[in-house]
Specification:
The protein has about 375 residues and is an alpha/beta fold. It contains twelve helices and 15 strands. The chain folds into three domains: about 140 residues, NAD(P)-binding Rossmann-like Domain (Rossmann fold), CATH 3.40.50; about 180 residues, Dihydrodipicolinate Reductase, domain 2 (2-Layer Sandwich); about 40 residues, no CATH class. Helix content is about 30%, strand content about 25%. The longest helix has 20 residues. This is Gfo/Idh/MocA family oxidoreductase.
């Protein structure tokens, strides 16, 4: 039987995942779409639409919901969806505060439906291949992991819209870093215990304005009307011209140097897991180029990989030997692993199996990012419970 989906949230991620992944599946169809602002209803001709998510939940033809609303709205919608006995596929992160994450945890304690969170890298071929190497003991016992996220589109993605304020996002560790942090949690297969982190806002926001203009910028300044948009390294026009990045013709364009911005634009996070494995992670949201790179140290060797070359290299500690794996599969979806993630969700709906990205793992990922930001703010090590 085909699974009837209700899509809640038709922003950049929501409508594209619905169109390019859910609608292409032979085992799913879309019954209804919802967006509080009426965005992208025209992309779903012949499909019922509404601005009220409760109408989706009350629709008896909707078996499952895909939630892609702003992160600080997830708890309310997830809890209501569970009450209506809908299967739930929710975008990451789970929520933006410890209190709301725990609300979801309590509300779903006896939930019998499928629940999956959009940590798509767990489903991407490259990351799954690394997991299989680690399980096989290719580098022995894990002891240390170094991860670096270079993000050249940080300003474009996170500093023009609601992500730029802690009130609605808490930290960009939750918005961007959480993918890599979740992958490390999956590889280490243990809970984070001690977290020490550092972060600053230095290039965007008021600090960036003072360096660039010598003063704060007007609160109503926008790229499309700014007199220096042709030369500004963060204008949406230049990002398109120089880096070929454009996710929507109507992308928000509030100035990334606005003084209301209060999230960090670079962070360093150090973690010790309950099994002793150590993580050193860094996120740079004003990078010159894109790359997500991992270096994993084990008792029997080292493993390095990144998602640009799509190569995994294993170095043997005893023998002068290396093994290289190259992934030549071209991902066609918005994110690597989108199709595989949906298939895992479908299987969970049909059989009751626990998804690879589940409630417990998404709680761990969210709380790690939240605790790391708390460490930055409080200038002390945080012990996770």
């Amino acid at each position: 039987m085909s699974i009837g989906f209700g899509i809640i949230g038709l922003g950049n991620r929501g409508y594209k995942y619905a169109l390019h992944t859910i609608m292409k599946s032979k085992e799913c169809h879309i019954e209804m779409v919802c967006d509080a602002h009426g965005n992208h209803f025209d992309q779903f001709p012949g499909i019922s639409n509404t601005k009220e998510f409760t109408e989706v939940l009350e629709n008896p033809k909707v078996d499952a919901v895909f939630i892609a609303t702003p992160d600080d709205t997830h708890a309310e919608i997830v809890i209501q969806a569970a009450k209506h006995k809908k299967h739930i596929l929710c975008e990451k992160p789970l929520e933006i505060s410890r209190e709301k994450v725990q609300e979801i945890q309590v509300a779903l304690r006896d939930f019998e439906g499928a629940f999956e969170v959009g940590y798509v890298l767990r489903y991407a071929r490259l990351f799954q291949k690394v997991k299989s190497y680690l399980i096989s003991g290719a580098i022995g016992d894990l002891h240390m992991i170094n991860v670096m996220d270079h993000i050249p589109y940080g300003g474009y993605a996170y500093f023009h819209d609601w992500h730029r304020k802690r009130e609605t996002s808490t930290s960009l560790l939750l918005q961007k870093a959480t993918h890599s942090l979740d992958i490390v949690n999956w590889y280490v297969d243990a809970k984070p215990r001690e977290i020490a982190a550092f972060g600053r806002l230095s290039t965007m926001g008021k600090p960036g304005a003072l360096k660039k203009f010598g003063k704060e910028v007007a609160s109503d300044l926008h790229c499309r009307t700014c007199v220096i948009s042709d030369s500004c390294e963060e204008s949406i026009q230049n990002i398109l011209k120089e880096k070929k990045i454009s996710w929507s013709e109507n992308w928000p364009d509030s100035c990334v140097f606005n003084s209301e911005i209060d999230v960090d634009d670079h962070q360093t996070v150090m973690v010790q897991y309950e099994n002793g494995t150590q993580l050193a992670y860094q996120l740079c949201l004003f990078g010159a180029y894109y790359k997500r790179e991992f270096h994993i140290f084990g008792s029997g060797g080292e493993l390095r990989f990144d998602d640009v070359s799509n190569e995994i290299t294993i170095y043997d500690r005893l023998r002068n030997e290396t093994v290289t794996y190259k992934n030549d599969y071209a991902e066609e979806q918005m994110e690597p692993g989108d199709e595989e993630q949906l298939q895992d969700f479908i299987l969970a709906v049909q059989t009751g199996k626990k998804p690879i990205s589940n409630l417990e793992s998404s709680i761990t990922a969210a709380l790690l990012a939240i605790d790391a930001q708390a460490s930055i703010d409080q200038k002390k090590m945080i012990k996770s419970d």
